[in-house]
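BUG: 3D viewer hangs when loading the predicted structure for this chain

Environment: internal workstation, default settings.
Expected: structure renders.
Actual: progress bar stalls at 90%.

Input used:
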Amino acid sequence: MALRAGGPALALLRGRLHLPGPGARGHARLGRSGAAAQLAPEEPGEDAEVSTRKKTFAEVQTERLDQAERTVLIKFPSKLNEKKLLQYLSSHGTVKSHFFFESRGINALIEFSEKSSIASLQDAVGIPSASEHHVVPFKSRLFTFTLKNPVSQHVEETPLQLSPQCHIPMKDLIEKLCLADNISSQMCIVLNEYQLTEENIKLRFLACSLVRDFACAYFPDSTVKPFGSSVNTFGKLGSDVDMFLDFCDTGKHATKMKKGPFEMEYQMKRLPSERLATQRILSVIGDCLDNFGPGCANVQKILNARCPLVKFSHQPTGFQCDLSVSNSIATRSSELLYIYGCLDSRVRALVFTVRCWARVHGLTNSAPGTWITNFSLTMMVMFFLQRRSPPIIPTLDQLKELADEKDKHIIGGYDCTFVSDLRKIKPTKNTETLDVLLCEFFEYFGNFDFRRNSINLRKGKEVNKPESSPLYIWNPFEQDLNISKNVNQPQLEKFIAMARESAWILQKEDKTQQMINKEPWGLAALLIPFGKSNSSKMKNRMKGIGSETIRSLLDSLKLNSANSQQKAVGK
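Structure tokens produced before the viewer hung:
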């Protein structure tokens, strides 16, 4: 029987997920298979988790990458004696952690305490028979185990606990939301069901580590790191893995060779541009994955894009992956969002709720197009939280003021400097609850003057648009770029209409009556496409929105006319 997320059941939910109260700064904990290291709460009484919660973005990534280097992935038959498996693996070294999941069969992720245990296991593993297919003799950390004597090992068989790698269906989510006591609890449920689990994060870093094994054959000092939603605390179960090939260690090596009577350097291939070098590197790595990579399928080399990349499916982990080269600014964006996500528990709950709402109503889409991206939508939530009184999160300029020398980053001429130590950032005095913030978010952007104003997270205030794109969100670092330039006027108008409708529903609904009628209420009501339930009401509230296109065009003409007159006077 389903439990209500209120009363005694609410206490149970709190055991899985810290529900934010007024002014709470702790993170929501994972309810599925344990909490991810960077997502743990920072409450003073929780000694074991405080040190983890205070780690910088770079420290967490380093630990995760090291963890992945000590990890293997094993495919098993459907029936397995878990105890005997662990006993065998322990003969090669201490097993620090493990879990089972399903991806084209049953798999186990095994983390050893020492990297040497992997070499020991590899020495005991044989090469597949070439009787049916010829094999490429690349010894990876992907193994297949089969039972030598299946009948005898089926004794004492118990079902394996499989870690879920995708979020629950929308229908099941709405049923859960209807059992909650209030909208704030509903928003925490969405976060709990959609956020990355500890196991899923481990799989993402392992996928990067396995690609690194190939890259190191050509570039021994290189690393492959995830960026974006996999590491910024806003990743959703089922999302792709963005990764990049990093050569920063090569640059550090060059600075060490300054002593002695000689200037010493490697003889290396020289190419006319960095872009050409990137394309050549990705072309070779892409071919390597395609021809020799176990489980790497559907490899596509997209080398003429603004940011060249290789797309592929990594079947052992079940991820769709995008590989690029030295994406330094994207990494800084990931760290910025990581900091915002760590500062206050309400930040992530609001982002996950708004993104879930946007997807239901077709405002976002996984395919490229003219709609708002998840990144743009996340930035809009951050801007809204900067605009609260008092602000819930600081502006980028305020984070820059707290930075010291080690935080200084100038990348391609762009200032990407901000503080990395979370302890230097003062907690907010804002005590607004999640339900209030959700309604206020819809109110704010339902009435935002998109015709004149742009969204600037560096300043944390509305500024005049530098050009006439329907939606203008300044790139936090590359300030000459609009991250929402793809969004057209109809898509923006649809967003405004949905925001207004959602604000109206939250303000006017009668929760008690809806529960008596067994109707979805609160957030659950917002996650049902509006056209199915209240299309006539929505049409009335959409009046006037279409005319904004005309007003926008007229304002644009007036602006262009005024600029022309100023230029004429200047001449």
